[in-house]
Specification:
Elements lengths: L3 H11 L7 H6 L7 E2 L2 E2 L1 E2 L10 H14 L9 H20 L8 E4 L2 H16 L5 E5 L8 H10 L2 E5 L9 H7 L4 E7 L11 H10 L3 E5 L11 H4 L3 E5 L10 E5 L1 H6 L10 E4 L4 E3 L13 H17 L1 H20 L4 E4 L8 E6 L4 H10 L2 E2 L1 E3 L4 H6 L5 E5 L6 H19 L1
Parallel strand pairs: 3-15, 5-6, 5-7, 7-8, 8-9
Antiparallel strand pairs: 1-2, 4-10, 9-10, 11-12, 13-14, 14-17, 16-17
Helix pairs in contact: 3-11, 4-11, 5-6, 12-15
This protein binds 4'-deoxy-4'-aminopyridoxal-5'-phosphate.
The site of 4'-deoxy-4'-aminopyridoxal-5'-phosphate has 14 residues, from helix 5.
Length: about 425
């Protein structure tokens, strides 16, 4: 078995053209240097959650060691410091996704809470009996269930745009679903189960032509590609810090300012009010109107540091490197005749979902773990995708820029051993 250090050396030798110094990057992620079950950790579960660079870990520690106090309304030094760091993070996240104003960024627990917030504020005031929300077959449960709840509350109806055998959105079918009752489209940017990158500009343009707003679930896009919400022109965009090398329990909702201004609050409590009497409460300005209670202050600050870390590496380099990795992995897996890839879209992020003939996904995952290789197995919170491809579960290897071709090779070797064991 190759050691973790050898693995990265192999990468640079094999890929002299890449301008990404993977060896250096791996050193910035302390967790990657360990062994699991006596083997170098090969972490291929980045779509579930990615690992954290030292700069993010240090930011959290330093914040708690030196700067912590509750934010807003404090006159003392630590309160001011924490508030400045928190509001500074809002500006960083605004720049990260190209929003026009910092007030258009609402901090939430993650993409899941983001979609629930949009559904229960914007959605709840917009939708009535018989109105329609359009989603797609490839959505994560967190972009299905909040809309189902909203449908139960309002009498609205969920319509689902289909995907083809490669896992691509069928654009013509999607457009056919946009009718006079359609009030909202909510769609993923990148599918977590298939890797498909959705052609959002076309999706948004088709909706806007009919006066329909678009919510984007960007949870799987922001770790891999430059997102510019003004260029996309979507009404809302939500994403999670922990999938983009930041802390868990924090994420953001971007919303166009005028829409946020018009929306009712999400949760009631401290921070989201200007004044409270038993007779009348006035709500705070956007975005504070949507941030009731003490937020994840350290998490927000770490989130912004992670976003800056990605920008510093550069999305051009990240995308080029991950594209190489994906091509290598696709080629290697295609040589294993027992493996069937699920999700073969022309435009794909670095996700490989597959089934192995005669071996249940969970068995594959367990045996790979014994080799130190972390993949995810199951329905990936996208059961309708599993139904679409008539499989109960897949094995999913999801890559990040710190992965190497040698790690892919290690996975394929382990996979061949699994197949041998099960066929013998
Ligand atoms: N959408 C997609 C496409 C996802 O992959 C995930 C996480 N697996 C989510 C939404 C939910 O993100 P979180 O659990 O961080 O709220």
């Amino acid at each position: 078995m190759i050691s973790a250090t050898d693995t990265t050396k192999l990468t640079n030798a094999d890929h002299p053209t890449t301008s990404l110094d993977v060896e250096q990057i791996r050193r910035e992620f302390p967790i990657l240097g360990q062994t699991i079950n006596g083997k170098p950790l090969v972490y291929l579960d980045n779509a579930a959650s990615s690992q954290k660079p030292q700069v993010v870990i240090d930011t959290l520690t330093r914040y708690y060691r030196e700067d912590h106090a509750n934010i807003h309304r404090a006159v003392h030094t630590l309160g001011v410091r924490a508030t400045e760091a928190y509001e500074g993070a809002r500006v960083q996240v605004q720049r990260f996704i190209g929003a026009e104003r910092a007030e258009e960024i609402i901090f939430v627990r993650g993409a899941t809470e983001g979609i629930n917030l949009i559904a229960q504020t914007y959605g709840r005031s917009l939708l009535h009996q018989g109105d329609e929300i359009v989603i797609t077959t490839m959505e994560h449960h967190s972009n299905i269930v909040p809309w189902q709840i909203l449908c139960e509350q309002t009498g609205a109806v969920l319509r689902v745009a289909p995907i083809n055998d490669d896992g691509e959105l069928m654009l013509d079918e999607y457009e056919k679903l946009l009718g006079p009752r359609t009030k909202l489209v909510s769609i993923t940017h990148v599918s977590n189960a298939l890797g498909t990158i959705v052609p959002l500009r076309q999706v948004v343009a088709a909706a806007h032509d009919r006066g329909i707003g678009v919510v984007v679930d960007g949870a799987q896009a922001t770790p891999h590609m430059k997102v510019d919400v003004r260029e996309l022109d979507c009404e809302f965009y939500t994403f999670s810090s922990h999938k983009m090398f930041g802390p868990t329990g924090v994420g953001a909702v971007y919303g166009k300012f005028d829409l946020l201004e018009a929306m009712p609050p999400y949760q009631g409590g401290g921070e989201m009010i200007k004044s409270v009497t038993f007779e009348k409460t006035t709500y705070n300005d956007v975005p504070h109107k949507f941030e009731a209670g003490t937020p994840n202050i350290a998490g927000v600050i770490g989130f912004a540091v992670a976003a800056n870390y990605l920008v510093e590496i550069g999305f051009d380099r990240i995308a080029a490197y991950e594209h190489e990795l994906l091509s290598h992995a696709t080629e290697m897996l295609s040589k294993v005749s027992e493996v069937r890839l699920i999700g073969t879209a022309a435009e794909k992020a670095a996700v490989l979902s597959f089934v192995v003939n005669g071996v249940h996904a969970h068995d594959v995952g367990t045996i790979l773990d014994s080799e130190g290789i972390a993949v995810r197995t199951g329905h990936h919170c996208a059961q309708p995708v599993m139904d679409r491809f008539a499989v109960p579960a897949t094995v999913r290897a999801s890559l990040a820029f710190y992965n190497t071709p040698a790690e892919i090779d290690a996975m394929v070797v382990a996979l061949r051993n699994v197949i041998k064991v099960f066929s013998g």
